[in-house]
Design goal:
It is a single chain. This protein is of the alpha+beta class. The protein is 23% helix and 32% strand. The chain has 4 domains: 284 residues, Glycoside hydrolase 38, N terminal domain (7-stranded beta/alpha barrel); 115 residues, Immunoglobulin-like (Sandwich); 278 residues, Distorted Sandwich (Beta-galactosidase, Chain A, domain 5); 78 residues, Immunoglobulin-like. The protein is built from 15 helices and 47 strands. The strands form 10 sheets. The protein has a 9-stranded antiparallel beta sheet with strand order 27-28-29-30-39-36-35-32-33, with helices on one face. The longest helix is centred in the middle third of the chain and has 30 residues. It holds the Pfam family Glyco_hydro_38N.
């Protein structure tokens, strides 16, 4: 009887784009697929090929070889080509919770159109694994996940290492999420290339198998050994069945078979020992020396992350909610258009793409994809708002006014001050020459200097006139030719107080002054901005002291801009040895009040730093010689240049957040810019938004083997530090990297400028230096125990704009003010309001912001009844909806019309 069985799975890890532009990889993919289809027809012993867990490969192939569709379909149905379950192999941490969900949803759906997907959560090269993977996979009907990073296999006599949280004595383990969901975890302990290029000659085969079998046996918990026959962009090994036949001859006590994940998983999972380790939560290579966690990809090419945030927020938080609200008016939902937008966006979500660690050509093409998806989202949201506003009753608004509707499509109440532009008067080109119409309206505009805003009950609400201007615009009717015109546009500032989540309110712009003259927010004597919640004292050097007026706690000397050298690469930050940080507050600073009104105060802090122009020339030689970043000796150049930071602090009347907008023109190279917030709080942990989770992480490295002097981490909309009573939450827009420094200072990365890709060779990336004009946005909120969860949701809302649509006076079936979805649940964060994929039921999704039970949760949509569903929008066996939300639970509800 044979003692062991070796399962050899042919595959190719297909990075869609990386060290070559997309089309270079694309053309190689065509050859791979052509070879596979030929092998399937000519070699009956070739079991199958695993298509890397991503269905986009089929789209890419058939785009060039549409005539091969029947051959591809036949190969899948015959089990030769193993596909799914995902659309792309994403980076978990750098795309949103919903983007991770849609990747599975679309991938499974498209896989099932072809045949049966491989039900394995496939994360071979993801740069860290999200803690909610077990729950997300189980919700999709997937009971196992395979991954290459995040867990340290100990292997020493197969002993359990109890003092290492992220270690396993075997390559097989249980993986438990924060909600206690547990799935089978398979670590590629010897990487996903441990069975690559198997020799077909005796001497070489013996050499190969002696090493490979020993490596696999070191970590295997069963007699079922896995050999992955492939690696990055690997052409198929055409003689693999011949190599397997030779192995069976050489090792009669071992059975070598050409296999697939379905058969391997069935075998290994039926034979697991009782002493498997259980790893929990995020798997981010914390049990290493700290250099290759690859977390610094969160700060490579920050412009990519900012654009991704913009497009995700447009699709998830603007377009889908508005289209869902408009459905009862339109009787249609843009399923196909949204699917196109999502697939276009997700083409930017593979780890080498969204991580910003590819050659410049790749990221140039990404920006075009972002723009394509964004414009689809904008078009669809415009269609939805038109359908809604055309049916909203505005007849009670003053006849001499200009009605408009504001939509809050965030899952939390807003108290923002927004600016919007309303068309006051127009002259179509059909009425005269454009320049004459322009001059006519310009004269009229000069007489317009007082406006106010009323709500649907004609109550005057807080607003301020910003500008009156004349500009060209045009309409594109659906039933006739375009209409160009000149128009007077009035820009107003409007206070939205207690504006309910998922609701709209109707207003009107009226000529004439309002009578209210409240006190402004800035005190020039103390150089302080103040509203009901917070007081911000601005020091002469640009640092700020923030006082929480509810707790009377002050956080002094925040808003520290730090600049250091970076001689690393797109993957890894490396500060030069003995490099001394430079701080903006040590340089000349000017402070200017830009806006000071009863609604908003904006103060510009301008700081003129002098920093090195680049690293010294030695860095270029070290990169060309492929010297690993840890061994580089380059220092920063002695030549200095002016690096100007312009930061606008913004405090709004009813808003707890201090909003910050920083601009700079980066002409320097090889450096990093961060903003620091000392907290003075005594706590050993902090929290940050991750995928369907507010994850708690230690402030300092817990691993005794850690060597990296830094410990970068991923975030989405916020990171927060708090003690038992007080805290500080830092929100951001597309700034995905932070670090907690040793004195509990929060550091958020604003720019990392480097000159090479890194990894296995020298690939220069001059555009990764991010030269040119840039801006970043973040916000600060000081919290108490009563406002903590609200601050998290406000941080999420910080990324979600309100939507404004001008309309006319008319009657309508919709109320002027209406809340479509109401949420009663302090710990609940909404991530989706959409229609079911290719159906008309409403889908809501969200998660518990805490790892503790939420005792109150109630969602309501008028005329709809909710039922529990899974993440792929299927009804669960128990469809009853509980008002109690379990710790870290992801909740998907499917709402049916009553």
């Amino acid at each position: 009887m044979k003692n062991k069985k070796v399962y050899i799975i042919s595959h190719s890890h297909w990075d869609r784009e990386w060290y070559l532009p997309y089309e270079q990889h694309h053309m190689r993919l065509i050859r791979l697929m052509d070879d596979l289809l030929e092998i399937f027809e000519t070699n009956p012993d070739f079991n199958s090929f695993h298509l890397d867990g991503q269905t986009i490969i089929l789209d890419d192939y058939l785009q060039v070889r549409p005539e091969k569709k029947e051959a591809v379909e036949r190969a899948i149905k015959n089990g030769k080509l193993r596909i799914g379950p995902f659309y792309i192999l994403q980076d978990d941490f750098l795309i949103s919770s919903e983007a991770n969900t849609r990747n599975t949803l679309i991938g499974l759906e498209e896989s099932k159109k072809w045949g049966n997907p491989v039900m394995l959560g496939y994360f071979p090269d993801t740069f860290g694994n999200m803690g909610q993977t077990p729950q997300m996979m189980k919700e999709a009907g997937i009971k196992a996940a395979a991954f290459g990073r995040g867990v340290k296999p100990t292997g020493f006599n197969n002993a359990v290492i109890n003092d290492e949280k992220y270690a396993s004595q075997f390559s097989e383990m249980w993986w438990e999420g924060p909600d206690s969901t547990k799935i089978f975890g398979l670590l590629f302990a010897n990487w996903y290339s441990n069975g690559n290029e198997i020799p077909t000659t005796k001497k070489e085969a013996i050499e190969f198998w002696e090493k490979k079998l020993a490596d696999a046996n070191q970590y295997a918990s069963t007699d079922h050994l896995l050999m992955m026959n492939g690696v990055d962009h690997q052409p198929v090994q055409k003689d693999v069945t011949q190599a397997i036949a030779l192995a069976n001859e050489l090792y009669p006590d071992i059975e070598f078979i050409h296999s697939n994940f379905d058969d391997y998983l069935a075998a290994v999972m039926s034979d697991l020992p009782d002493n498997l380790s259980t790893v929990t939560g995020e798997l981010t290579s914390q049990e290493t020396d700290g250099w290759y966690t690859l977390a610094n990809t969160a700060s490579a090419r920050i412009y990519i992350k900012q654009k991704n945030t913009e497009v995700q927020r447009q699709l998830e938080n603007v377009t889908e909610p508005l289209a869902t609200m408009a459905y009862d008016m339109t009787k249609s939902y843009p399923h196909d258009e949204l699917r196109y937008a999502w697939k276009t966006l997700m083409q930017n979500h593979p780890h080498d793409s969204i991580c910003g660690c590819s050659v410049d050509e790749v990221h140039r093409e990404m920006m075009a994809r972002f723009d394509k998806a964004l414009e689809v989202g904008k078009y669809l949201s415009d269609e939805a708002t038109l359908a809604l506003t055309s049916n909203i009753d505005t007849s009670k608004l003053p006849k001499n006014s200009k009605p408009f509707v504001v939509f809050n499509t965030a899952g939390v109440e807003k108290n923002d001050v927004i600016e919007t532009t309303i068309e006051w008067m127009r002259r179509p080109f059909s009425e005269g020459k454009p320049n004459e119409l322009y001059d006519e309206l310009k004269q009229i505009a000069e007489t317009l200097n007082e406006f106010h805003v009323v709500d649907s009950d004609r109550n005057v609400i807080p607003s301020e006139l910003v500008t009156v201007d004349v500009a060209f615009d045009y309409d594109l009717p659906t039933d006739r030719f375009r209409i160009p015109y000149m128009a007077i546009f009035v820009t107003i500032r409007l206070s939205l107080a207690s504006f309910n989540e998922m609701s709209w309110q109707s207003f009107a712009l009226v000529e004439g002054a309002s009578q209210t003259k409240d006190k402004t927010l800035f005190d020039k004597n103390t150089q302080t901005i103040e509203n009901d919640y917070v007081k911000v004292a601005i020091q002469n050097n640009g640092l700020i002291d923030i006082t929480n007026k509810e707790s009377n706690i002050t956080y002094p000397s925040g808003l520290i801009f730090e600049n250091v050298g970076d001689i690393g690469n797109e993957y890894i930050f490396k500060q030069p040895e003995n490099d001394i940080p430079l701080y903006a507050h040590d340089f000349p600073t000017t402070i200017t009040v830009v806006t000071d009104t009863p609604l908003v105060c904006e103060v510009l802090i301008e700081q003129q730093m002098m920093i090195p122009l680049s690293a010294e020339d030695l860095l270029q030689e070290e990169m060309k010689a492929v010297i690993e970043m840890r061994d580089r000796q380059a220092q920063r150049s002695k030549d200095l240049g002016t690096f100007t930071l312009k930061t606008t602090l913004r405090v709004e009347k009813n808003n707890r957040q201090i909003k910050c907008h920083t601009e700079f023109d980066n002409q320097m190279r090889d450096h990093r810019l961060r903003v620091l917030f000392p907290t003075g709080l005594t706590t050993e942990t902090h929290v940050a938004e991750s995928i369907f989770e507010v994850v708690e992480r230690p402030n300092t490295v817990q691993n005794k083997h850690w060597e990296n002097p830094t410990n970068p981490q991923h975030q989405h909309s916020f990171v927060a530090l708090r003690d038992e009573k007080n805290g500080i939450t830092i929100s951001n827009y597309g700034l995905n990297e932070y670090e907690i420094l040793t004195n509990n200072t929060i550091a958020v990365t604003l720019l990392r400028a480097v000159g090479e890709l890194g990894d296995w060779g020298y690939f220069p990336t001059p555009e990764a230096q991010c030269r040119g004009k840039q801006s970043v946005d973040f916000a600060i909120e000081v919290t108490t125990e009563n406002t903590l969860f609200d601050s998290y949701k406000r941080a999420q809302s910080f990324q979600i704009p309100t939507t404004v649509k001008q309309t006319t006076h008319h009657t309508g079936v919709l109320a002027p003010n209406y809340q479509f979805l109401s949420i009663d649940g302090k710990q609940f964060a909404l991530t989706a309001l959409k229609r079911q994929e290719f159906g008309e039921d409403i889908i809501t999704r969200g998660f518990n912001l805490s790892n503790q039970t939420s005792s109150t949760l109630n969602l309501e949509i008028n005329e709809y009844t909710p039922f529990e569903a899974n993440m792929i929008e299927e009804f669960k066996e128990n469809t009853s909806v509980s008002t109690i939300m379990e710790p870290a639970k992801i909740q998907t509800l499917r709402w049916k019309k009553k």
